[in-house]
Design brief:
Helices cover about 50% and strands about 10% of the residues. The chain has about 180 residues and is mainly alpha-helical. The chain has a three-stranded antiparallel beta sheet with strand order 1-2-3. Helix 1 packs across helix 6. The longest helix has 20 residues, at about 65-85.
């Protein structure tokens, strides 16, 4: 089954494009990005597991979390995406990639002027990606997959089933819009 294609940029440097591959910034001796490699895209369930594990490690699941709050956090990310759209804030992926490719700090893994590869990557992310429409959609998907991880939901299966069901429905699912 083909994975659902999404545009998302995770903090660890995973950039999904609209093909069946994912570009990964390989880590250098500092454990941070320095070059591009390609491999098969992960399934949503694999991402779910990584995202949920990271959320647990960052303390988001130290206490039980109520479903309503978790769902409203997803809604808040969508509201932030709407605001980014209203303010015409969209990710500059090509610019971000070019900055990474031309940064000696990142490509060579050197510290220049006290700037580490991680600090350089973060500055470039904040300049080109942070708080954009795409970034907020990624946050929404991350929050949804975290909920799926916490609840043990096989989201790949549920999306496959829902798509199959939707294919049987009438135009606009019988509604005005």
């Amino acid at each position: 089954m083909r994975s659902v294609n999404i545009i998302a940029l995770a903090f660890v440097g995973i950039l999904f494009n609209l093909t069946d591959n994912v570009e990964i910034y390989a880590t250098n001796s500092y454990g941070f990005a320095n070059s591009l490699k390609t491999r098969d895209m992960k399934t949503l369930n694999q991402l779910r597991d990584e995202i949920h594990e990271n959320a647990k490690n960052k303390g988001f699941w130290d206490s039980p979390r109520e479903a309503g709050t978790l769902l409203m956090l997803c809604v808040s990310e969508l509201a932030e995406a709407m605001e980014a759209d209203r303010k015409d804030r969209f990710a500059k992926i090509d610019r971000f990639d070019k900055k990474l490719e031309t940064s000696r700090v990142i490509t060579e893994g050197v510290i220049l002027g006290g700037v580490t590869p991680e600090a350089s990557w973060l500055a470039k992310f904040e300049e080109c990606i942070k708080d954009t429409f795409e970034d907020e959609l990624a946050d929404t998907i991350i929050r949804i997959l975290d909920i799926c991880g916490a609840r043990g939901i096989d989201i790949d299966k549920h999306i496959e089933l829902k798509m199959k069901y939707n294919a049987t429905r009438e135009r606009l699912h019988g509604k005005k819009y």
